[in-house]
Write a structure and sequence with these properties.
Layout: H1 2-25, H2 29-48, H3 57-61
Amino acid sequence: MADVFGQELRDQLAQARVELAAARAAQDEDGVEAYRGRITGLLRIAARHGVDLPHTAEEEAGDD
């Protein structure tokens, strides 16, 4: 079950990264902020549950 949870987090993180890139390309600042927050939130959930998700320091902090 933990593998399914971890995979779901990985899938959601990958999708949020795609959406963040699209928001940046469209110069949608609200979208950028929303997806940065989504990424940070997913990383926090993963950390609370001991799921290791590769990420950058900027993603963890929510910075660009």
